[in-house]
């Protein structure tokens, strides 16, 4: 596996106290805790050298210990998953860190690899962050404030994010893209994030990566294939289970 500082470390932030779905990481999906599904997906990504769960709850620590999953206890006071990842980065040296949301039991390992490759290619341009998006929002995604839209630049970076369905079709129709909560960072980028104040746009839109844009930094981005199903509410579990059955995994 080599020296730890040369690894790509994937981190899965896992909170118990979700306002919409308390205890979500331990919710059972097709006979397994959701966090186990996510961990198995991340383990299958060839670019990832190590995986750790970052949590602030002993119940999640107990689950990880039972399944032999590396876990890092972090502060309960973090405002975002990226703040939690920054604490992990201060404890675990790595070349790159990939943030994989703990409520994505169907995340494609290829998507994780794509975001890591995207950042690897962008570092030489002085960029320390990358993320992903899906090309072409559905009408439901355009209507939902839960969806974050990403507008890319012509050279593969993020122009902006918004919960509004942007860009506006003023003179001609355009494609709207859906941001995917999959990020890669250098250690320096995470240290900067944890030290910067939240800007007015990040506060208004509740989009944590806006912090980099508001502080004048660039974010590389890459398109990925659709197909993952995020579990935000208990009623999303049957949808995830149906998708797993369709793939022959449940």
UniProtKB/TrEMBL annotation:
<dbReference type="InterPro" id="IPR004528">
    <property type="entry name" value="KdsB"/>
</dbReference>
<dbReference type="InterPro" id="IPR029044">
    <property type="entry name" value="Nucleotide-diphossugar_trans"/>
</dbReference>
<dbReference type="GO" id="GO:0008690">
    <property type="term" value="F:3-deoxy-manno-octulosonate cytidylyltransferase activity"/>
</dbReference>
<keyword id="KW-0448">Lipopolysaccharide biosynthesis</keyword>
<dbReference type="GO" id="GO:0009103">
    <property type="term" value="P:lipopolysaccharide biosynthetic process"/>
</dbReference>
<dbReference type="GO" id="GO:0005829">
    <property type="term" value="C:cytosol"/>
</dbReference>
<keyword id="KW-0548">Nucleotidyltransferase</keyword>
<dbReference type="InterPro" id="IPR003329">
    <property type="entry name" value="Cytidylyl_trans"/>
</dbReference>
<keyword id="KW-0808">Transferase</keyword>
<dbReference type="Pfam" id="PF02348">
    <property type="entry name" value="CTP_transf_3"/>
</dbReference>
<protein>
    <submittedName>
        <fullName>Putative 3-deoxy-D-manno-octulosonate cytidylyltransferase</fullName>
    </submittedName>
</protein>
